[in-house]
Amino acid sequence: MRFVRQGLVFIFTFYLSLVYMVGCASFQTIDDKKYIIPKSFETDLASIPRLLWPLFAPQYSGFVAPAILHDYLYRCPNDISREFADEVLYSALIVENVSPFTASKFYLGVRLFGHSHFKHGVC
Questions:
Q1: Do 11 and 22 touch, CB atoms closer than 8 A?
Q2: What pLDDT shows up at residue 58?
Q3: CA angle centred on 81, ends 79 and 84, rounded to 5°
Q4: Does pTM surpass 0.85?
Q5: Domain boundaries defined on the chain
């Protein structure tokens, strides 16, 4: 899988909320297909249980862009599988210099617990 992150990601936090909004449109190219994440797309970043935040803070810069892309892929495009979206998350984390060990934990987490969040094509 070839993953290219292009564009800047800015996020805005809603006061006292765990919902974030993308501040400007960005796009990613995956296997030569462009995915545009629109401005104002709402995300929860990485859905990490609060108990684990001391180890894996969802706002850590290496997690932000991959988490936004993964949330977008889980909700918007109609032509992808959940497995593909999870593989993209792993690849994007590696591109952001997250260790393969940590990226594997994220991948395992979404494979085991992500099925209820996969709402494909609701954007």
A1: yes
A2: 62
A3: 110
A4: no
A5: 3-117
